[in-house]
Design brief:
single chain, 194 residues, mainly alpha, 2 domains, 7 helices, rod-shaped
Length: 194
């Protein structure tokens, strides 16, 4: 009888989870308790009648069969829980490995992007050229200041300072980015507009 039950259980649930085993345990216990209660209610009648005694014996066999099924299911439960826990650990490890690989790919891509951007920043050669332009404009403005009151002569353009101010503005925006959350970082310098 137990072998038939096991075969039908395997056919219905070829890969039973620990939750499924727990449901079957609860179901079998309930059936066992109901049959035991019915059997016990027949005890007095079984002592007086053969048909009641046969029914009592049949119910007693069913109670024993259900108790054996519960015992087997309870014995199988820890192993099922262990297998599920191991499968969950392996799936978690695989997911973490994949996430780490994705992160490393994102990091490499971000580094390539940042390196390309940094390569486009002002070079030392360009800064030297800006200084040379500044010095030339100052020299010419000094010569012109003897007879001209033009504002561009009194305050000659300083390309090196303009580059410095633009870079300083970017540094300020980077430093302030921790306070603005996910809002875009803007470079609209109100001082430059005035």
């Amino acid at each position: 009888m137990i072998l038939q039950w096991l075969r039908s259980l395997r056919q219905q649930h070829p890969t039973m989870s620990s939750a499924g085993i727990r449901r079957h345990i609860a179901d079998r216990r309930q059936q066992r308790d109901q049959r035991a209660a019915t059997r016990d209610a027949l005890a007095l009648d079984a002592m007086r009648s053969d048909s009641a005694a046969e029914q009592y014996q049949r119910l007693d066999a069913e109670v024993a069969e259900l108790a054996q099924q519960v015992q087997m299911l309870e014995a199988a439960l820890p192993r099922a829980e262990q297998q599920e826990a191991e499968a969950a650990r392996q799936a978690d490890a695989k997911a973490r490995t994949k996430r780490m690989q994705d992160y490393q790919c994102q990091t490499a891509e971000a580094k390539r992007w940042a390196d390309a951007l940094i390569a486009r920043l002002t070079t030392g050669e360009e800064l030297t050229q800006a200084r040379t332009l500044r010095d030339a404009l100052r020299e010419e403005a000094r010569a012109l200041s003897r007879w001209s009151d033009d504002v561009t002569v009194r305050r000659p353009l300083n390309p090196l300072e303009a580059i410095h101010d633009a870079l300083a503005l970017r540094v300020q925006r980077i430093e302030r980015s921790r306070w603005i959350g996910s809002h875009p970082i803007t470079l609209d310098d109100k001082r430059a507009a005035s």
